[in-house]
Amino acid sequence: MIAAFDVDAQRTFTPLCPHELPVVGGDEIAAELNAQAQLAQLRIASKDAHCPTAKWVVASHAEMLQPLDYPDADLTWVRHAEPGTEGFELIPGLPAPAEYDFLVYKGVETAMHPYGACYHDLAGRISTGVIEWLKCHQVDTVLVGGLALDFCVKTTALQLAAAGFNVYLNLAACRAISETGASTACEEMRQAGITLVKDSQVLAAKLQGSH
User: Fold this and answer.
1) Are 139 and 4 in contact (CB under 8 A)?
2) What InterPro entries does the record tag this protein with (predicted)?
3) pLDDT along the chain (211 residues), means of 10
């Protein structure tokens, strides 16, 4: 059984919300996410769901990425992905949330800012339930894309690989905050046994060849 995972494919990480955390091209990945979903039997999504008074919030982009001394919030960020705002919504072209088979909402607690979608905490102790749900549905392969490649996508893929799934990372279905971050993330994922593919066409061929 194959599942497709849309990781944090929200407007907050695109130029549609320029005052939040815009990633260049972040609003251009819906077609690739939809294409990889066609290769799967199940489709799941994660969404950042943050509070405006979270302890990691800073007033400007210049203050971001500073270290914090909270066990589950390691860096400062500007306000983003607040429920009820445009930034919380999925990017144009994706299904409505109710059309997914499983949804993860993460980062709701004011002192917790997880990156991966599989755990609420940075140490990987408090499950969001998605790993257990996938195993209950006898999923063995997960196709991953979303935003941003060098943070939440990478961490989610690594968590899934560590849980024993065959993980494919669709590069065309991702965008990164920085080229350096993307390069480092890709190498880290390769080292963990994750298969990186150029796009959904290559992914389809790989999946066909593995069965």
Assistant:
1) no
2) Isochorismatase-like_dom (IPR000868), Isochorismatase-like_sf (IPR036380), Isochorismatase_Nicotinamidase (IPR052347)
3) 98 98 98 98 98 96 96 97 98 98 98 97 97 98 98 98 98 96 97 98 90 60
Token digits for 179? 């080229």
Number of domains in the chain: 1
* pLDDT value of position 211: 60
In angstroms, the CA 92 to CA 103 distance is 18
**Euclidean distance between the first and the last CA atom of the chain, given in angstroms as a whole number:** 11
For 103, the enclosing helix (H) or strand (E) is strand 102-106
Residue type (1 letter), 179: E
- Cα separation of 146 and 45, whole Å? 9
User: Tokens standing for 58?
Assistant: 């800073």
The domain in which residue 34 lies consists of 2-209
CA-to-CA distance for 83 and 143, rounded, in angstroms? Answer: 26
- 87: which 2 tokens? 């930034």
193: burial class by Cβ within 10 Å (0-12, 13-18, 19+)?
A: exposed
Longest dimension (CA), the chain: 51
Specify the CATH number for the domain of residue 115. 3.40.50.850
